Amino acid sequence: MPKLKNPESLALEAPLELALRPRRLRSGAALRESVAETYLRPDHFIAPFFLMAGQGQEPIAALPGVQRYGLEAFLRAAEGTLKLGVRSLLLFGVLPEEAKDPLGRSSADPLGPVPRAIREVRRAFGNEVVIYTDVCLCAHTSHGHCGLLKETPRGLMIDNDRSLPQLAAMALTHAEAGADFVAPSDMMDGRVGYLRRALDQAGFTEVGILSYAVKYASAFYGPFREAAKSAPSFGDRASYQMDPRNAREALREAALDEAEGADMLMVKPALAYLDILARLRPQTRLPLVAYNVSGEYAMLKAAARAGALDEARAVRETLLAIRRAGADLIISYHAQEALAQGWI
Ligand code: PBG
């Protein structure tokens, strides 16, 4: 046994004169509750849903606990979600290969899974529900890119400006079906202004735009692309989604979308970009939305299933962190389970 230092020899001779003691505010649960700076309510969440043609539901291997829904199954799931106090739904369409073409024309099909779901969920729940729809071509194009392609002397490139009319057709189809907000996630330049004009010209001045203003080219979308069958068939999305190394660029994207008429701004993904949320917060007066994306969800689920952490606490801490960083609303696959289980 080595010789241990004796703390008695280090004991204070006089009481410590410590006027400032932060621990006083943590001394009991009721007190901690009363001074908590951040909190979560059910209506802080936007719940994502994957809609497919047909009936029934299919599990998504990469996203345990998340399903693709046919119409009837979706309506039941939406009802369950509303009962938990979540009022906002974000709808994504999942199309079979045979519905896809190079121009993504099925994105404007009024009988597609998303327009149908909008009409039915509105019929069932009226204005209790706030309906957001993802507006992007990747689930509708045969090549899986978010915009259309063109041949150029430099090779095949994204045709930014020619993609905008198809995105506008998609947004109008959703507005006609009864969406409250369209959420363009394609990252083409000028799309927010283009959609705003198209909506206004068609008389949909009340339909809002939640812009995926700050959307990074992220590895954390992997499970979503399986869920939505929307992975690019070649190349990547780096020519339109943002470089993870950049922060000033995020402020620029956000400012542009605000100037073009966005009603809310999104940062996506959430967890690796909490600094971006925090920097954007004082730069805009618009509501900020954070997307806690599929890979973030899958990562936490896998860790919980491996017994590496306590899922309830980890989910709560994660969602609180996103709010603390500056998000008003959170899009998260955790929302329903976290509320139903009383994790938050
Ligand atoms: C469509 C879109 C994507 C996500 C939302 N909208 C995928 C992508 O950009 O490749 C990802 C959401 C998630 O990972 O949960 N462009």
TrEMBL record:
Gene3D superfamilies: Aldolase class I
Known pathway: Porphyrin-containing compound metabolism; protoporphyrin-IX biosynthesis; coproporphyrinogen-III from 5-aminolevulinate: step 1/4
Catalysed conversion reaction: 2 5-aminolevulinate = porphobilinogen + 2 H2O + H(+)
Origin: domain of life: Bacteria
Record bears the keyword Flavoprotein: no
GO cellular component: cytosol
Record: residues binding 5-aminolevulinate 2: 294, 333
Annotated positions binding 5-aminolevulinate 1: 225, 237
Pfam families, per database record: ALAD (PF00490)
Residues bound to Mg(2+): 253
Transmembrane regions listed in the UniProt entry: none
Active-site annotation: 215, 268
Family listed: Belongs to the ALAD family.
The protein's name: Delta-aminolevulinic acid dehydratase
